[in-house]
Design a protein that fits this description.
- This protein is α+β, with helices and mostly antiparallel strands.
- The chain contains 8 helices and 12 strands.
- It has a single domain (2-308), classed as Sandwich (Jelly Rolls).
- The strands form 2 sheets. Strands 2, 3, 4, 6, 9, 11 and 12 form a 7-stranded antiparallel β-sheet that branches. It has a 5-stranded mixed β-sheet with strand order 1-8-7-10-5.
- The longest helix has 15 residues, at 78-92.
- Bound molecules: 2-oxoglutaric acid.
- 2-oxoglutaric acid (AKG) is lined by residues 112, 155, 157, 165, 170, 183, 185, 196, 254, 256, 267, 269.
- Keywords: Dioxygenase, Oxidoreductase.
Length: 312
């Protein structure tokens, strides 16, 4: 516990991702990859027809399940990356009711300039947000029988007086009873500690759902950890090249550095939920306009089913 509390004061023990493979998680994972993951989402469609149609290696699945996050290099080809940058830049160039924080000097905006459900405004964004192969990866990592879209969001960390995204779990903010949902975080720019790469605490998804802390007030997620010896291990820093991505579990502790450069850090995140995930009454920008009843499965045309298991 002490190590983690110190972490919050800025003295966190940070482990680069290339060492994390060795330190965490892979001990019980098969060393052989089984089915290899392809290099681009478009290539996967053509090349990854295997006996089982599985697109993610057993090693990656195992790493994700043990640690609550996993990285994929070069998820997008250069062409796809250029296409996504153009589409996202266009979507972000106009404010709308989907822009989460429109007050430019607000505490939230300094942390994130966010736009929700870009797929509903732009077919070019829809191509990526609804992409069957990205959903297939979420399906395989989660082990669900089907995967639905919850929402996407553009997450830009603006230059200027940029603030880090504090340590948090995602699940406490979601109007869902179950805790299986997961996010993909695709970076459109090279990211490192200077411009807002992420850090994850391996195995922290095992501690359960904690409080949804205020992201803009000084409050520490780690204060809500019970002192039962179930202390998560140290944080792993995940710098990435543009076009790469991470997936993280809804309960995994994660953090993003402030952007100290003079350009926006551009990210597209997509939140996937196992089919059958049910509504839990709470305020949320995506479900506030819809009259779901408590316990009702989240579904319908705004939460489309994107992938199903072959044998489901
Ligand atoms: O991009 C960021 O700064 C934070 C991202 C995040 O918290 C998430 O994708 O869940």
């Amino acid at each position: 516990m002490r190590a983690i509390k110190n972490a919050m004061t800025g003295h966190i023990a940070r482990i680069p991702f290339h060492l994390a493979d060795r330190l965490y998680g892979t001990a019980d994972c098969p060393s052989s990859d089984g089915v290899q993951f392809g290099t681009t989402i478009s290539k996967q469609i053509k090349e990854q027809k295997t006996m089982t149609n599985q697109v993610v290696s057993e090693e990656k699945i195992c790493f994700y399940r043990e640690n609550g996050f996993v990285k994929f290099d070069s998820m997008l080809s250069q062409k796809e990356l250029a296409e996504l940058r153009e589409a996202l830049d266009e979507v972000m160039s106009v404010d709308s009711e989907r822009s989460f924080s429109r007050v430019k000097d607000s505490a939230y905006y300094k942390m994130l300039n966010q736009k929700v459900n870009t797929w509903r405004d732009s077919a070019a964004m829809g191509k990526f947000v609804l992409h069957p192969r990205l959903a297939q990866i979420a399906l395989e990592l989660s082990g669900a029988s089907g995967i639905r879209l919850f929402h996407d969001h553009a997450l830009w960390k603006m230059p200027g007086d940029s603030k880090p995204t504090p340590w948090h779990q995602d699940a406490p903010y979601w109007p869902m009873k179950e805790t299986g949902p997961l996010s993909i975080w695709i970076t459109l720019d090279d990211v490192d500690e200077q411009n807002g790469c992420m850090m994850f605490v391996p195995k922290s998804h095992n501690v359960g759902k904690l409080k949804g802390i205020s992201l803009t007030e000084p409050e520490s997620l780690f204060d809500y950890l019970s002192d039962d010896g179930n202390e998560p291990s140290k944080a792993v820093v995940v710098p990435m090249k543009a076009g790469s991505c991470t997936f993280h579990h809804g309960l995994t502790f994660h953090y993003a550095f402030a952007n100290q450069t003079d350009k926006p850090r551009r990210v597209l995140a997509i939140i996937y939920m196992p089919d059958g995930t049910t509504f839990l009454e709470r305020k949320h920008v995506v479900t506030d306009e819809i009259s779901f009843r408590e316990g009702e499965p989240l579904g319908g045309r705004l939460f489309p089913l994107l992938a199903i298991r072959d044998d489901a």
